[in-house]
Write a structure and sequence with these properties.
The protein has 190 residues and is mostly helical. The protein contains 6 helices and no strands.
Length: 190
């Protein structure tokens, strides 16, 4: 059974991420007011929580598929470990560097070693995304800065995920053309 294409997963992730970000831009200032939150704020917070859960689910699927795609070629982290350690609160702030930046480096090294006709994944972009996640954390409760940091993390995150999805899709397309790679990580004869 072949896995479904990653592009619809990216579209779902982008929708969840953008809705989560815009809802947080609307909710945070309302929650910081001196009066108790109204029903609309509670409803928006629930919608934001649902968008966050969708983002985590779809993001986990994409991360798992990405690491699974490079496993036959020498990937050093198993897909389950990559996703599982992202679910550990606190540790995920450190692990994201290995899960995202490490994936980009390994993907690029594998594609260069095998002379694959795929575009490299910019590891600087993924590193910038991980740093923006770290920077957004202490700024979460600073009005104005929280929104700027959130938008920056959202934009960098979408660009990063798009680069990973495109890279993995190119690798999968190359392998499915019959000019793929055998189990030892060597190109098959055309």
């Amino acid at each position: 059974m072949t896995a479904p294409p990653l592009r619809p997963c990216f579209t779902a992730l982008a929708c969840a991420w953008v809705s989560m970000e815009f809802l947080s831009l609307a909710i945070l200032p309302l929650l910081m007011m001196d009066q108790p939150p109204g029903e609309a704020v509670v409803f928006l917070a629930g919608v934001m929580l649902a968008a966050t859960a969708a983002w985590a689910l779809v993001g986990g699927i994409i991360l798992h598929r990405a690491w699974r795609a490079i496993q036959p070629h020498g990937g050093t982290v198993t897909p389950g470990l990559a996703v599982g350690l992202m679910a550990v609160p606190g540790f995920n702030l450190v692990w994201q560097f290995r899960a995202f930046v490490g994936f980009a480096r390994e993907f690029n090294a594998i594609s260069a070693r095998l002379s694959l006709p795929v575009r490299p994944i910019p590891d600087r972009l993924l590193r910038s995304y991980a740093i923006s996640n770290l920077a957004a954390l202490p700024l979460m409760f600073v009005p104005g800065l929280a929104q700027v940091a959130g938008v920056a993390a959202c934009v960098l995150g979408l660009l990063s995920v798009r680069a990973v999805v495109e890279g993995v899709a190119m690798l999968e397309a190359y392998e499915s053309e019959g000019t793929g790679i055998d189990g030892a990580g060597l190109p098959l004869a055309a």
